[in-house]
Amino acid sequence: MVVVGAGPTGLMMAAELAVGGAKVQLLEERVDMPNITRAFAVHARTLELLDARGLADELLTRGTPVYEVAPPGGVTMNLRELPSRFGMLLIVPQSGTEQVLQTRVDDLGVQVARGAEVVGLAEDDHGVNVQCADGTSISTRYVVGCDGAHSTVRRLAGIEFTGKQYETHILLADVHLTRAPQETLSGVTNERGAVLIIPFGDGWFRAIAWDRLREQAPLKEPVTFDEIRDSFHRIADEDYGMTDMRWSSRFLSERKQAERYRAGRVFIAGDAAHVHSPLGGQGMNTGIADAMNLGWKLAEAVGGTAPGWLLDSYESERRPVGAAVLRLTDAFNQLVLGRSKAQRLVQSLAIGTITRLPAGRRFMAGRLSQIGIDYPRASRGEHRLIGKRMPDTDCGGTRLYELLREGRFVMLTNGEVDVDRADVVHATHRDSDLPAAVLVRPDCYVGWADDQVPTEAHIAAAIAHWKRTAQK
Ligand SMILES: Cc1cc2nc3c(=O)[nH]c(=O)nc-3n(C[C@H](O)[C@H](O)[C@H](O)COP(=O)(O)OP(=O)(O)OC[C@H]3O[C@@H](n4cnc5c(N)ncnc54)[C@H](O)[C@@H]3O)c2cc1C
């Protein structure tokens, strides 16, 4: 297996493949870790997915939790009310998340080649030949392109990337503040633009400005200290005592999605498959969840246990999620940065109306935190829970998400049933809200459920739907 790109998506993908037993090579063109940070917001569902691999606690020590957020134009939501162990938004620089994932990849013994730029792909019936810029090549069964918004893998696989560019240039700067705001996430939005201040936790802050007066400044023009400070003055009447700047950039966001997530033996995930406005902090979170969805499926394919349809379920499950993220972030973008007052008003009314009602706030919190993401039930059985996110639950002294740490399926039953499979963890639950039996996929979604205590034959059939017995 070859994974291209060692950003958050590629690191998670490589780790998931390795935990599933596949031999993985991770190719990354950069030699050093990146010195700029983009993502800050790690949402509750991502923390759950990381918890299912034993990585959430380490990330929590590196970040600052935020318990209340207000979507643009909406009413404040209390994230403590999320039905999750992680009722919060964790503010942690992307580099911190990448370090946790890099350690995981190292611990799992993944081969990481830095300075390896992929420039060519040649596919035949048996596999793919991956060519690097230094003239070396690797033959492998499958390739996953996690190589970011300008993905070479996507282009080489002939996958269209369609959408549009936003018109507004965003200013980013890392600054020191002498009058830092009290709240962890602090922002101002008005007709002059929007500004946001986010702490790195080491005394530096990321200042972000969407300034209507400067939105058309050429992308190549460097952002000066005076420019970012002036934007803050103009929009927020306050510069929080900015003293110095160590880095800055002018950035243009896009709203694009790949027409397909798979072309033969080549898959794409993360920013290679979808890019959108950073408002809402969804990109990295969506990429990590893509990796969690595809990793175990590809590992099964390599191990010879995947049913024929399994690999295609990656696109049918994850592409609609990407499309929904594009719609949500586009609505935020129109609201905060839209040029038309009428459009801003429509979005503001929509988001304001949704979040005014408790059920609407729960819906919006579910979308933002990604806790509300479910997959289509398709043809995998009748039970209402199939395809739903599986919440953590007590399994007699152990949590379900601890049982998922080896990346295997978990069969939960509320009584003693024999599950004679070494590749499936079996545990009993005492949760009266859960059905008598639930088969939990390695990516923490329900694969099958039954309200009656199942027979061994039923259980064997449910597992066989997802996993063939490996050929000796
Ligand atoms: C201002 C800003 C704020 C953001 N805030 C958030 C946020 O709060 N929360 C959130 O979830 N997301 C946020 N995002 C989005 C987030 O940063 C991205 O979605 C995330 O980095 C995508 O991860 P990735 O691994 O898919 O791609 P990338 O991080 O782009 O990684 C791709 C990797 O592939 C490598 N590569 C590229 N081409 C090749 C090649 N040919 N061969 C080998 N290697 C290659 C690159 O060097 C790179 O390391 C933000 C983005 C911006 C710009």
Brief rundown of the structure:
With 472 residues, this protein is an alpha+beta fold. 31% of the residues lie in helices and 26% in strands. Bound molecules: flavin-adenine dinucleotide.
Keywords:
single chain, 472 residues, six-stranded mixed beta sheet, 12 helices, 24 strands, globular, binds flavin-adenine dinucleotide
Shape: globular
Number of continuous helical runs: 12
Please state roughly what percent of the residues sit in beta strands, choosing from under 5%, 5-15%, 15-25%, 25-35%, 35-45% or over 45%.
25-35%
Query: Stretches where pLDDT falls below 50 for ≥5 residues?
Result: none
Class by helix and strand content?
alpha+beta
Tell me the radius of gyration.
23 Å
Q: Which ligands appear in the coordinates?
A: flavin-adenine dinucleotide
Beta strand count: 24
**Mean residue pLDDT:** 91
Helix content: 25-40%
